[in-house]
Design goal:
This protein is mostly helical. It has 6 helices and 3 strands; from the N terminus they run H-H-H-H-H-E-E-E-H. A 3-stranded antiparallel β-sheet has the order 1-2-3.
Length: about 160
């Protein structure tokens, strides 16, 4: 089926890049749970799903007004927003779409189509943009988390 719907592998590349980036994001949230709290909670909290883990981190960051912590909180909120699209991609099929152009011609395309939200779909350009956004956020999240750890005195300043 993949060769019919994704003959050039463009979908696979976009989805793969997004999921590799989310792997990095997941890892960074675990590191944050190990480094930010004063008490050790990361062993029990690391098993939380991503959005509850991010919610916990946001709650832990609330008392800190360092710019670095505020920036980390902003990036974590972006993770929550992107998690919705990631879940849509992860839990819905890539389907072949056939449309008529009004002149009797059939046009073929592909999209990830939500099973439970009729009419909600993700096009290839949207998936590619999503992947690029995820990669950028994963990179940024590492840097801002290190800066927050430094501001909180959890790691020595380099």
């Amino acid at each position: 089926m993949a060769s019919i719907v994704d003959p050039k592998g463009e979908w696979a590349a976009a989805i793969g890049a997004a999921f590799v980036a989310f792997g990095s994001i997941e890892h960074t949230t675990i590191v944050c749970l190990r480094e930010i709290p004063r008490d050790s909670i990361w062993r029990s909290s690391k098993s939380l799903k991503l959005v509850p883990r991010v919610d916990l981190l946001l709650e832990l960051l609330e008392p800190y007004q360092h710019q670095e912590c505020l920036t980390l909180a902003d990036k974590l909120r972006q993770v929550k927003e992107l998690a919705r699209t990631r879940n849509l991609i992860a839990h819905n099929p890539l389907v072949l779409q056939i449309h008529e152009d009004g002149q009797g011609n059939r046009i073929f395309g592909s999209a990830i189509t939500a099973i439970h939200k009729e009419g909600h779909l993700i096009s290839l350009p949207e998936a590619q943009s999503f992947a690029a956004t995820c990669e950028e956020l994963a990179y940024d999240l590492v840097g801002v988390s290190i800066n927050a750890f430094k501001a909180l005195g959890r790691i020595a300043h380099a």
